[in-house]
């Protein structure tokens, strides 16, 4: 999803938002506040708490959802999933897809941000290029998928420009690299936009001081720019890891996880268990494992955000 | 021989410009090709050598999409679902944000943690129980099924952003109204909501975009063609029209226009608000 849900909060916004209330009113107003929160609480219960309990419950039973008689089976589903080579193949692919995507997003995003921040170019030109650079971000995964399927088709323009005749998305050797490339194209603007704002926030006198001390542009990059951007970069990397590890639509609409299982990700693997094999118990088990992975990353992210403030 | 300062600046400028142009081809080239293909006839799309504008330049593909009742239905569904999600999300989030911004209550910290962590839960994990719930409640292949489940994506963001916005407004504003004997609800709707319109619009636009773009739940929780949304519609075009690429591209562009327009409206806010992650006071 190219407009990604940037819902990264300042973790303290909600908690510390209120200024201390006047004591004598506190009781009545506390009761009142639950009234305002009631719809949210109900929705969180129905959309979050209950489903998580359900999916964890499913993962310890067999024949869930489709059959009426399911039995508690302990950790049998976990043994099945964790001993399935397909699961580990999907895990490996997800890891490759995530690490390459995230690293490339950072490098491209930072490069473009620095080019766009260059004082050597006039402001209107920079605004023009920024508008172009942001483009991939504005298309949803379904659009990005069909667009690249056209560009990469055997008689498409990419093969023409490279003077090749390659089935980019159907070749077992190339498919994983190709979907990763598409994801890189789709995702770098998020880094670029955030890092550009970060670059503009670096006090100019830091660079000037470094220049006076005789630092070369390369030295200034490593000793001024990067340390100043570090907190943003860590946030972006963690967020991108969370999102990329959950990517479904782009894979599903380009390769569907194939050929065979060459581009199978944890998301498509889980989806197929449920909606191709109709084994909702194993799908729930895989879904819980994916959840644990995301939660580890989320905890790291929230901790980092707190440290930032 | 050493370059003069002026010469060096000029060289650096050329380097930056070359980099910018190269990057622009990478970023915008595919989009330009999408646009160009949507104006071609289907046979010209893969002709060699490729041309950006061909003799048969026409709006036929767009006409085909916009006169097909099936594809129009995809747009109708997307507007309906995204519109309903936006209105409901705003209504719920404004009240929650008011509580977070102006009240102290037991469980605030816990609720804060829940709302933040909701955002990290993988959609695929929720999909399995949602499928069970939606089928069980008779909401499978219905608008309410999609609208309700989309709120899990939009609500946390909306609450956090609205709370951040309300935190920037002086407490005296609504206190004054309450001292005059009005209730909290009146203070919220008569005083805070009217001056929060910019914040509400931003959150609303973002909510709309998320709902408009959603794919996984739309794919799984609806079944019939007349219930499908635009992202699924684009996928369906690939199957049923035996690769009418010009129409697929036209549909992709038409399906992206609402988001493009909303992004233009929101651009300043996007660029400035992103790294902060929230509207800080």
Features:
heterodimer; A: 309 residues; mainly alpha; MetI-like fold; 2 domains; 13 helices; 70% helix; B: 281 residues; 75% helix; globular
Folded structure, characterized:
The complex is a heterodimer of chains A (309) and B (281). Chain A has 309 residues and is mainly α. Chain A has 2 domains: 38 residues, no CATH class; 223 residues, Orthogonal Bundle (MetI-like fold), CATH 1.10.3720. Chain A contains 13 helices and no strands. The N terminus of chain A is likely disordered. Chain B contains 12 helices and no strands. In chain B, α7 packs antiparallel against α8. Chain B is globular, with a radius of gyration of 24 Å. At the A-B interface, α1, α2, α4, α5 and α6 of A face α1, α3, α4, α5 and α6 of B.
Ordered list of secondary-structure elements with their pairings:
The complex is a heterodimer of chains A (309) and B (281).
Chain A: H1 12-16, H2 26-58, H3 76-82, H4 85-116, H5 123-134, H6 141-151, H7 157-162, H8 175-200, H9 204-212, H10 217-245, H11 249-254, H12 266-275, H13 280-308
Helix pairs in contact in A: 3-13, 4-8, 4-10, 4-12, 8-10, 9-10, 10-13, 12-13
Chain B: H1 5-38, H2 60-66, H3 69-102, H4 108-118, H5 123-136, H6 143-167, H7 171-179, H8 184-195, H9 197-213, H10 216-221, H11 230-240, H12 245-276
Membrane topology (chain A): Multi-pass membrane protein
Transmembrane segments (chain A): 34-60, 94-116, 128-148, 168-191, 236-260, 280-302
Keywords (chain A): Cell membrane, Membrane, Transmembrane, Transmembrane helix, Transport
In short:
Chain A: This is Sugar ABC transporter permease. The complex is a heterodimer of chains A (309) and B (281). Chain A has 309 residues and is mainly alpha-helical.
């Amino acid at each position: 999803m190219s407009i990604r849900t940037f819902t990264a909060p300042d973790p303290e916004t909600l908690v510390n938002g209120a200024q201390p209330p006047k004591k004598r009113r506190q009781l009545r107003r506390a009761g009142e506040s639950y009234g305002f929160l009631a719809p949210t609480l109900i929705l969180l219960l129905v959309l979050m708490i209950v489903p998580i309990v359900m999916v964890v419950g499913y993962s310890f039973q067999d024949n869930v959802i489709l059959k009426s008689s399911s039995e508690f089976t302990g950790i049998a589903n976990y043994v099945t999933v964790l001993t399935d080579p397909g699961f580990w193949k999907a895990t490996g692919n997800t890891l490759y897809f995530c690490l390459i995507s995230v690293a490339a997003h950072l490098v491209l995003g930072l490069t473009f941000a620095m080019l766009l921040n260059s004082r050597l170019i006039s402001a209107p030109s920079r605004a023009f290029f920024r508008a172009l650079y942001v483009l991939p971000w504005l298309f949803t995964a379904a659009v990005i998928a069909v667009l690249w399927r056209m560009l990469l088709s055997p008689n498409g323009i990419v093969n023409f420009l490279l003077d090749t005749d390659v089935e980019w998305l159907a070749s077992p050797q190339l498919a994983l690299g190709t979907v990763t490339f598409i994801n890189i194209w789709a995702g770098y603007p998020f880094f670029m936009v955030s890092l550009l704002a970060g670059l503009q926030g670096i006090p100019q006198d830091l660079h000037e001081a470094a220049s006076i001390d005789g630092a070369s542009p390369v030295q200034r990059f490593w000793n001024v720019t990067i340390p100043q951007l570090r907190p943003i970069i860590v946030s972006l990397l963690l967020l991108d890891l969370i999102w990329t590890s959950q990517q479904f639509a782009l894979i599903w609409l380009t390769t569907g996880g194939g050929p065979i299982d060459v581009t199978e990700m944890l998301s498509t693997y889980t989806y197929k268990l449920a909606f191709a094999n109709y084994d909702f118990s194993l799908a729930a088990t895989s879904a819980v494992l994916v959840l644990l992975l995301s939660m580890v990353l989320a905890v790291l992210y929230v901790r980092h955000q707190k440290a930032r403030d | 021989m050493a370059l003069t300062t002026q010469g060096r600046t000029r060289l650096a400028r050329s380097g930056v410009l070359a980099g910018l142009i190269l990057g622009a081809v990478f970023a915008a080239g595919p989009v330009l090709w999408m646009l160009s293909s949507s104006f071609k006839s289907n046979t010209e799309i893969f002709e060699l050598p490729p041309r950006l504008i061909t003799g048969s330049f026409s709006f036929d593909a767009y006409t085909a999409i916009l006169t097909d009742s099936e594809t129009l239905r995809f747009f109708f569904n997307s507007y309906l679902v995204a519109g309903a999600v936006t209105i409901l999300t705003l209504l719920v989030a404004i009240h929650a944000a008011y509580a977070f911004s102006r009240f102290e209550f037991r469980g605030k910290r816990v609720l804060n943690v829940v709302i933040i962590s909701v955002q990290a839960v993988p959609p695929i994990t929720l999909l399995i129980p949602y499928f069970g719930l939606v089928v069980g409640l008779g909401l499978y292949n219905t608008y309410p099924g999609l609208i309700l489940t989309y709120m899990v994506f939009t609500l946390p963001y909306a609450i956090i952003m609205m709370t951040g916005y309300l935190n920037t407004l002086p407490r005296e504003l609504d206190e004054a109204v309450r001292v005059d004997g009005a209730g909290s609800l009146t203070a919220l709707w008569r005083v805070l909501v009217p001056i929060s319109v910019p914040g509400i619009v931003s959150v609303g636009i973002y909510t709309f975009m998320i709902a408009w773009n959603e794919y996984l739940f739309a794919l799984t929780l609806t079944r019939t063609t007349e219930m499908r949304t635009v992202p699924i519609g684009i996928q369906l075009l690939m199957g049923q029209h035996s690769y009418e690429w010009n129409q697929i591209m036209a549909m992709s562009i038409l399906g992206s226009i609402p988001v493009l327009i909303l992004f233009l409206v929101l651009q300043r806010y996007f660029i400035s608000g992103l790294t902060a992650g929230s509207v800080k006071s």
